[in-house]
Design brief:
Radius of gyration: 22 Å
CATH architecture of the largest domain: 3-Layer(aba) Sandwich
Number of strands: 5
Structural class: mainly alpha
Bound molecules: tryptophan, iron/sulfur cluster
Strand order of the largest sheet: 1-2-3
CATH superfamily of the largest domain: HUPs
Helix content: 40-55%
Shape: elongated
Length: 334
Amino acid sequence: MTTTGQPQRQRIMSGMRPTGRLHLGHYMGVLRNWVAMQPTYDCYFMVADWHALTTKYDQTDSLVENRIEMVLDWLACGVDPEQSTIYVQSQIPEIAELHLLLSMLVPLPWVENDPTLKDMVKDPSADLHYGLLGYPILQTADILAMLGDKVPVGKDQLAHLEISRDIARRFNHVYQTDLFPEPRPLLTETPLLMGLDGNKMGKSNNNGILLSDTAEETAKKLKGAITDTARVKLSDPGDPTACQVVYPYYQLFADAEVQALVAKECQAAERGCMACKKQLTEVINELLKPIRERRATFANDKGQVMAVLAEGQQKARAQAADVLATVRQAVKLV
Ligand code: TRP
Ligand code: SF4
């Protein structure tokens, strides 16, 4: 069976850098969407470990462990190896070859004007190096090696994807081929989930509920979440709109009746912030329960996880090898 050419179903290609354990924000913003897409699209989900090197090239001790932990989080959330291809970028050397060939076609201003790199290009003290500048080209190689035509991304990635389309178009034009689809963004609704301290929830800020946290750890973290800071005593009426974390979490995780009740009782000073957090803890632990259970099952069977990645590698490599065979011909390397 040849895999080159347009796949029958539209193909999703997406990736994530393995920089640490994933949190609730990743679930609500990304993984939930990936899971929902699986029945409709032919999905390729990639651990972008080379991309992690573009900023952390000197911190590689945990790279292998991090990618396993991240795949555990994916599987826990319902990313399904029966439906989707799950693989590690650095195990597909064809991606690096494609990156190299594509890099010849990319005028420097295309990457220099990428909004995420622009500031670094102008700042002489920034740790800007050749590999980092190539970030969007490597990402393009990820997508095109799998002939991805839809890429689920957040708004911050739209500029990268525009470069990807420009590169695909340019390759097709220069080498007179129609090999590459022009990958389109699949803009997913990503609710902004605040960190428990009211700052952006980040992998490194340590202010989020991790998918690998236990129910007790979750309770402890939520206890420390900030609320309406103007509210000191239980008898003070609260203001849900000024409650920076707890109420917004209710809006995301609880049903409408619960939300209304919380708002009413808060405003009437009938509900204390401690009790309020406790109830929220139950709601969130309920949501995370099946995710934790699945995670534990896979974590106890690392062999199965390795098997998932081996199978994904095989499928992804077959696809990439097919594409690269056509690419080498188009470039007239053979
Ligand atoms: N740049 C993406 C991020 O930081 C990760 C990524 C790597 C990716 N390769 C990709 C996303 C290909 C979509 C398609 O989140
Ligand atoms: Fe926030 Fe609940 Fe406290 Fe009101 S009672 S301020 S909603 S934590």
